[in-house]
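so my prof wants the structure for this chain in the tokens format not the other one, which i didnt know existed until like an hour ago. anyway here's the sequence
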Amino acid sequence: MKDTLKIAAAPITWGVSEVPGWGRQLDAGRVLSEIARAGLVATELGPSGFLPEDPTELKARLSAHGLALVAGFVPAVLHRSEVQGEELARIEAAARTLAEAGAEVLVLAAGTGAHGYDAGRAPTAAEWRTLGRGVAAVLGIGRRHGLAVAVHPHVGTLIEKEPEIRRLLESTDASICLDTGHLTVAGADPVGVARVATGRIAHVHLKDVNRELAERVRGGALGYHEAVRRGLYRPLGEGDVDVAGVVEILREQGYDGWYVLEQDLVIEADGDGARPLENALHSVRFLRRWMAA
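here's what i got, hopefully its the right format
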């Protein structure tokens, strides 16, 4: 067992999101410099337009801050046959950028087609069949570009809760991105999902969660975006998720991929009271204390 963890950042910790109207979007220069100040050496890509799409320019931009690229999050509508071809072409382009810029993983979310993540649902039987074909096609794209593909169970998508995760694993060859926050908000136990998906985890997002807000989202009393704005996701060790337990079981299973720190954040348009760098530093210290123990 290795005595270190491969820890990376994600721009969503700095409030940078693909969702229209999410909140104030910080510029890439500040985000990358603060990722480096947090002592991290790698990052995910962030949404389209946040960083250059040309791989050479992208690598140079990251390298200027001492950073490498590890993965990119690509939501896509794959359960509708009339748009699947167009979506696969978009994923192919994203995969090319990721691979040529040195990334290892394409993180895929099964989007519903709606803006934002306030309303997810389970696929119908027919949608599962179409989605399965789409996932298989994305796995092929990943192989062509030398990328692992990790399907991300994500609040507000078609694959959110544990029954959908189990069906995905049973009906496809896909691996998953284990996200401690989204699983908790959806009512799943991240440690339990890690056991269910043994050998099928290609990427990890670490979040801590305010349980009271998560329960309100799950019960329909609070929208997802509003819950994030109120502090749904917390720095590691400040919420109700057994983050250390998740990392421990993954290490026991031999997982040696990246652990991406994600404390999704909404930054208000009229100010900069959010403290993304401080949140990231807190999470880094949590993991390093755990490793030292």
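also thought this was worth mentioning. The domain at 6-292 is CATH 3.20.20.150 (TIM Barrel).
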